[in-house]
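Methods, example record. To illustrate the input and output format used throughout this study, we show the complete record for Enoyl reductase (ER) domain-containing protein. The sequence lines were provided to the predictor; the line carrying structure tokens was produced by it.
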Amino acid sequence: MAMSTENEHPVKAFGWAARDTTGHLSPFRFSRRATGENDVTFKVLYCGICHSDLHNIKNEWGITSYPVVPGHEIVGMVTEVGTKVTKFKVGDKVGVGCMVGSCRSCANCKEDLENYCPKMILTYGAKYYDGTITHGGYSDIMVSDEHFVIKIPDNLPLDGSAPLLCAGITVYSPLKYYGLDKAGMHLGVVGLGGLGHMAVKFAKAMGLKVTVISTSPNKKKEATNHLGADAFLVSRNTEEMELAMGTMDGIIDTVSAVHALLPLIGLMKTNGKLVMVGAPEKPLELLAFPLLMGRKMVGGSGIGGIKETQEMIDFAAKYNIVADIELIPMDYVNTAMERLSKADVKYRFVIDVANSLKPF
Ligand SMILES: [Zn+2]
Ligand SMILES: [Zn+2]
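The corresponding predicted structure is encoded as:
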């Protein structure tokens, strides 16, 4: 008989889990493995709520195995390290993002692109090497191979830096890879949510001119006054859009609902790059002709490798970049999920895990 999640490992753990497709989260006892020789164990202090947590707890992608303890924007303080660990010591501030394993030997892994490894292991809801299911950061403790642990620089506040581990790297990586990181370039950012607001902050720190493109005109003040965007376009305002045609070097598109690509392609200069980081469930319409006329491209990008995630965090520390967050107690998490489904948050919920997760 298979052991229960509560007894399969020697270390007692507790958190909040969803048990079925209602996605309702409630207290949950489980267990974590003992610190292995290459492992870092840490006390979870904060965990961001990513939109994919919401999809996952409701099994909207059809891959969820219940019970699921979500959370892949996890930060905390190291409590124990394995005998072979070299990068971390007890007391260090650390984080774990979307993955806790990869094959470490394929072409992707060798190029520090563990995020594209076919055997990449997600931080929660995935089968680990020992056959047990991984559990995320809506919980009291976390254990991970040190390779997948990120060092959080001292000057970064831990609560605001949690979302960097997914939202941050998701937009930082394409800016670097697609060469949209040169000062003076003009970047469009479509959608001003968790991902979009991080894209604005990183691009501004890199010295770019940033234009936010949104369906809601009421986000203009926030985008320009608060986040420091240079301009704001209402995507439904054809006059405004016409005026901005052919002005952008690239666009980071964070929208995960079906939307029109044609107007975005039109906004770009020759050689412009439209990069998708949101994932609409249905196919988008893509006409080839507008791409030919201007040698434009549409690409994609998914999170980032560990080396680049560390680079992103260090960059964030240098420029004091953190997410704008609403810090919430664990028992608010179901309400937070409901609000998140209505995009009612500026811009990321972060759970104050250590101060609000009560043992039971
Ligand atoms: Zn995420
Ligand atoms: Zn690999």
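Annotations derived from this record:
The chain has a mean pLDDT of 96.
The chain is about 25% helix and 25% strand.
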